[in-house]
Amino acid sequence: MSTPRLLTVRPQPGDLTWTFGGVPPVARIAPGMALAVYTEDAFAGQVRSPTDRVSEVGTFPLLNPQTGPFYIEGAAPGDTLAVHLVSVEPARDWGVSSTIPLFGALTSSPTTATLQPPLPERTWIWELDRSRRTCRFRAQDSDFVIDLPMDPMHGTIGVAPAHGEVRSALVPDAHGGNMDTPEMRAGVTCFLGVNVPGALLSLGDGHARQGEGETCGVAVETAMRTTVLVELLKGISTPWPRLESDTHVMTAGSARPLEDAFRIAHLDLVRWLGRDYGLSALDAYQLITQAVESPVANICDTNYTAIAKMRKAWLPPATPYRGMHEQLREIGRQLR
Amino acid sequence: MSTPRLLTVRPQPGDLTWTFGGVPPVARIAPGMALAVYTEDAFAGQVRSPTDRVSEVGTFPLLNPQTGPFYIEGAAPGDTLAVHLVSVEPARDWGVSSTIPLFGALTSSPTTATLQPPLPERTWIWELDRSRRTCRFRAQDSDFVIDLPMDPMHGTIGVAPAHGEVRSALVPDAHGGNMDTPEMRAGVTCFLGVNVPGALLSLGDGHARQGEGETCGVAVETAMRTTVLVELLKGISTPWPRLESDTHVMTAGSARPLEDAFRIAHLDLVRWLGRDYGLSALDAYQLITQAVESPVANICDTNYTAIAKMRKAWLPPATPYRGMHEQLREIGRQLR
Amino acid sequence: MSTPRLLTVRPQPGDLTWTFGGVPPVARIAPGMALAVYTEDAFAGQVRSPTDRVSEVGTFPLLNPQTGPFYIEGAAPGDTLAVHLVSVEPARDWGVSSTIPLFGALTSSPTTATLQPPLPERTWIWELDRSRRTCRFRAQDSDFVIDLPMDPMHGTIGVAPAHGEVRSALVPDAHGGNMDTPEMRAGVTCFLGVNVPGALLSLGDGHARQGEGETCGVAVETAMRTTVLVELLKGISTPWPRLESDTHVMTAGSARPLEDAFRIAHLDLVRWLGRDYGLSALDAYQLITQAVESPVANICDTNYTAIAKMRKAWLPPATPYRGMHEQLREIGRQLR
Amino acid sequence: MSTPRLLTVRPQPGDLTWTFGGVPPVARIAPGMALAVYTEDAFAGQVRSPTDRVSEVGTFPLLNPQTGPFYIEGAAPGDTLAVHLVSVEPARDWGVSSTIPLFGALTSSPTTATLQPPLPERTWIWELDRSRRTCRFRAQDSDFVIDLPMDPMHGTIGVAPAHGEVRSALVPDAHGGNMDTPEMRAGVTCFLGVNVPGALLSLGDGHARQGEGETCGVAVETAMRTTVLVELLKGISTPWPRLESDTHVMTAGSARPLEDAFRIAHLDLVRWLGRDYGLSALDAYQLITQAVESPVANICDTNYTAIAKMRKAWLPPATPYRGMHEQLREIGRQLR
Fold first, then answer.
1. Residue C58: its pLDDT value, please?
2. By the 8 A CB rule, do D335 and D36 touch?
3. Can you tell me the ipTM of this complex?
4. Do D108 and B113 touch (CB under 8 A)?
5. Is the Cβ–Cβ distance between C179 and C172 less than 8 Å?
6. Chain B residues inside the 8 Å CB shell of D114
7. How far from chain centre, in Å, is Cα C80?
8. What does pTM read for this prediction?
């Protein structure tokens, strides 16, 4: 095992991309390489104080900028890209969250359309203590202050969609994208089905931490320094994004209504347990019924995202995706 | 602190009830009393082997029998019932699960109505080892066997509904009922708003364990020996079921589509943090966005149920519901 | 053919009922009898001027009072009740509509729960000209006045639910109830499956007219003088409410989300075309795809209601429900 | 008034397009011009007999080919395109419909994902009699034959989406696209908001007729000869597709779940009545509640589409969109 080649990418503002698909690659990389990337926050760094308003400084749809896309040599439709998150570290000592008019789970929206006016627009700056690994919340209407554990993650990671589509980076779907699940943290391998030659991988939307569901629509948004290992699994398909950690296999379904996101994720888990673990569909259906964890990822984006999460110790012995997670995990340990 | 009075109830088959509301109480108890009850499994004990079929031995709607209802003296509309689960122990060394035609998350149903035939009907018997506290799954189409941790819980607990309604015990709603959340385990206090004089508390639907979402619609169903402490909080209202453990406060919303269940639970959590923890609505909205866990409870019942779960250590100091959980927890420790 | 026996019922305020199921019958009638009933408006006549507010004068849940229930002799579970609407005539020269806080399609609600405040509460009095058969709308914020055709209907008609349930009169479901479809007008026969001995028929919620979807949640509510013919079809089951007019057969599905209401109605239509018109399921599926009308009934109630409406001239010759609609239609013509 | 310039376009197979956005224009036209186009059927003419199967001859995603896009000179974001359908005439004496595996309202699908196998695949050929203007259905499992009125329409019409997105022609959304509403017939003007320079108008998916909801997912698909007049309204925005006929104004909302499509359409109608008819939001909300028709357009596509349809005679006098519909209607009459 040798240290992988490393490509370091720090995009300039003009290099950021706002869609999956539809933009030329910023670089070509070979499978097996590592990428050390800087990702801007979801507001492109434009919301920096409690008096900044997303609706004033953000230029919709210029939200959720991505670093990429990267062309992975040899990737072709029907293959699977394995993206192992080696490290995900905030690049600033602050993060930002806010209410955004008509965006979020506890407000009407352009699709759940009502005659009511939007909620007040409010911005919170969270202090990030990278040595203590905490995120400090300061209430605005009382003197409550609390430090929550830092748990950095990427809200958005994906490839170019199928069928010639180009999707806003705000959308999660079968190509990945804006899934906004806290499970997308360092140590995890994300498997994404390849739809176009080169796959065209992008990532962004770093969160210093996020609750499940991303209720108000905005996590603790911050710029990230992230290292990922990128591998290619030729001839293995992946219908919806799948994740593997040291302890769990996970699937991510994105759709509306939320029960359809749940159905996609849990049906894909049944199919994964069939293909790689040898369980029949009905046995897998029974087993996950008693064993799965089903955290909501987001209920604010264009599609909602649900996760199905299964403990590997409760499954038959297997090496899904040719043991790729363990291999990348080992290489990643050396990189850090 | 003295040991509470204890009422032991083991219903005969003819004593089981199948609705919330609409049936006379089996007993009257004073606030502060303990109930030691036996609850039958969701199939009234009629499905006992892999060759038994729910559709043959169960007599719909005679599913999900409840023990109760109990009339709590002094309970009146606008009050809150506190039900502390002291212990929840399987009464058998086996549990049962099954597919049921047109019931479950990964099948069409009478409401998500399609022209497709139902899935095959299949019954699994799980072996419960009460000393090792495991549930053994045996795959039917391969030789895979796995022991999962026992984690006993009640799928159903509730009071008579408001507005003169009577609801099937298969339904979860604002009155509680068939919420099917694994969070309803020993050590937890469940707060239920009282809708009718005496509240009319019932419980049942014991699960030796259950995954989140209860994907196929049927957990590891078993009879239970359960002890609960029942207290009354006069003059405190509770709009939707709330739970408190030693570490978390939780809310349960039940509705369709699933995003509405999520909205109900998370809005009720915002309101609870306002009433009992002094956070403004927008501050609470922001805090839970970054801190809440949002596990799906069930996505198979008449209404789907979603949970919002917040760590108490991350909230301002407070004694919600007059410190009732801590008090009952202490009494419960003595009882066990 | 002889004139049917007629029972005239004008309930006193204390006689009104607010649920389907759970109340004793006000009268017993024999199949074949006619009922001439007075029904109060959805606000029990308490909202009478533009300055009246539903939230002030209405006592929730005392909304949507019903006249009934009527015990139909001989009706047993598995039978079908045929209710032919001979005439539906406003009993007043005014109707009332209003916004109600957190009720309606274009506002958040207790289930589609948001942090936004409710819309302003506003009451409109509509003038009903029973000779010209018009309903006069007067805009409140401009001087626009328009006369719309009167098209009287009942928002609510139903029987006691199955499984021992009692449902608020605000709920539509398989038992009928608050379906709020403009198709429920004079000349139509409504078929309802019987769930309990005597069926326990009630009706109310007269609308001088209503758009499809009942967008704001409140139609032109008025008291009605209504004559119905009630017949019993022994041994014929009806899973969801069905309607027959001189020109169309219709099915009504009630559920959330709205696509499930659509699915229920259209699957039930496929099944009806199979049972009574001899079409295979796939042929019926194909034919309705090209021929059905699918008006939304309501998208404001506890369940949403969708209609599937098929022109009889486009179906094979048949006499569904033993030709009951034609028979009742003929008798009804004599009664008027 | 002079006869408009006419561009005739008959695309060769290689000229068909499968997305909105992402493809260069086939022609540039000036506002005011007429387009006489040939559109292929949704299967690109590849399904021609009852033994043809969509899953065998169609090459997904090469479904629903469009004719276009057309660059309209001067069109810029914020403007509105007015597309008046002068005539829509089947180009063949047959149309085709079919079940497609896991597509349609009464089956599970890739998003409403279940473990059930798909419905059988079946193809129906409908005979179109263009002189009698009928569509003949022949049942396959019985000898029933019926002629339904021909009512030609376009399932798909739209412009390039906003935010740099490219969407499959199977998707309906704010840019129009695959709305599948029978209201899109000759005599109607469709207003579409412009998102990109030149607007990039395409159309296709001709249906000899279609029921509301397009239940099985496939209408009576046929090639069309269609003439449209295209005009540009500078400085007038249109958030969602709007239609105007001689008698009605209509709005089309596309989303999931279906209630959100309904909300979008009815909120947009309220806003349209405000902008062009002078009604306050609450007065408009009240008026449409009593007066609107709400037919479902499709409940099978990636987004579902709902229509809100309001009779112009019931509105204050107004000339929405600068009277464009009447002008185009008059010009169209001369063209036919």
1. 62
2. no
3. 0.98
4. no
5. yes
6. 106-108, 116
7. 17
8. 0.98
